Amino acid sequence: MFHRITATEDLGAISAGSQPKRFVKGDDCRKYVAKWPYDAAGASHGGICSKELFNELCASILAERVGVPVPEFALLTVPEGLVASIAGLCFGSLYMDNYEALPDGSHIASAIEEYDGATVYLLFAFDELLRNPDRKPGDILTMARGGRPRRFLAIDHGNAFTGSHWDSAHLLRSSQGNATDDSRWVFRGLNDKSLAAVAADRIVHAAADVREAVNEAAAASGLADVDRASAHAFLEIRRDAMVSLTLAAVAKAAETI
Ligand SMILES: Nc1ncnc2c1ncn2[C@@H]1O[C@H](COP(=O)(O)OP(=O)(O)O)[C@@H](O)[C@H]1O
Ligand SMILES: [Mg+2]
To answer: Which of 33, 50, 90, 102 to mutate to test the pocket of ligand 1 (most atoms within 8 A of CB)?
Structure first.
């Protein structure tokens, strides 16, 4: 379950990443990265139903459930007038000031001994569950001066469920097949089939019931019933195919370095 937070202060724009976002202070006095839903034409829809908001919320709820580390997150309400021209609901990711994104060009596989392999493969399999093609180095935060194994947090699930602008028919047509895409290249070179199988198996069990996660995220983001039902079916189909999807993905990752 996530918190519902109201933003009380605009703390400025963030330049990192591909989409406009801002730092805001929440009514819990903590600092959040606020991501606004954008539509296919790039227009902001503060407060309006958004697949991207659903994707972020549902992915983070499921991540916590299966054990993929993510920053604390919230459904953020930005009141009218706080930030020029934008108001309404957005995804809030608690700002992690002692973490930094992996540098461009990083491959986890080339430094796998620095990480807890089981957690790396859990994230790899989790992206297959969600068919999330977007796992760039900038979508993994690591602790700047942490010990070993290197702790990391997964961020940016706006492109889960095949992308940020899915419709219910497309989602059902896309319930088979790998999430692999060039932007998942942070995982290139991963080749441990047994760790991949263990991770997939863990997700099968931890995501035995996905209905509650889908319902919570759908209600918060105002998703239509037909989309909610498709998202639910999509996850169940992919969860049931988890082991074969993950093994196919690791075979592909092993070839692409
Ligand atoms: N919770 C957070 N804590 C610290 N930095 C963050 C957080 N969320 C995002 N960032 C920073 O913002 C960048 C872009 O965020 P991301 O969610 O990947 O947005 P985009 O959809 O634009 O790629 C990240 O690479 C990271 O540098
Ligand atoms: Mg990103």
So the answer is: 33
Does this model's pTM top 0.90? My answer is yes
Measured CA to CA, the distance from residue 205 to residue 67 in angstroms comes to 11
Question: Residue written as tokens 């859990």?
Answer: 122
> What number does the ligand 1 atom closest to the CA of 99 have?
4
Q: How far apart are CA 214 and CA 221, in angstroms?
A: 11
Mean pLDDT calculated for residue range 138-155: 92
In this model, does residue 170 exceed pLDDT 60?
yes
Segment (H or E) for 141: strand 140-143
At residue 47 the predicted structure's pLDDT band, cuts being 50, 70 and 90, is: very low
Name residues whose C-beta falls within 8 Å of residue 230's C-beta, 6 or more positions apart in sequence: 168, 169, 171, 172
> Rounded to an integer, what distance in angstroms lies between the CA atom of residue 76 and that of residue 247?
37
pLDDT value, residue 185: 85
Provide CB contacts within 8 A for 68, sequence distance 6+: 62, 119, 122, 123, 126, 154
Q: Which residues have C-beta atoms less than 6 Å from ligand 1?
A: 14, 16-19, 33, 71, 93-96, 99, 101, 138-139, 141, 155-156, 158
Among protein residues, the one whose CA lies closest to atom 11 of ligand 1: 16
What are the residues whose beta carbon lies below 5 Å from ligand 2 (ion)? 17, 138-139, 156
Q: Which two tokens stand for residue 92?
A: 């809030």
CATH architecture of 99-255: Orthogonal Bundle (1.10)
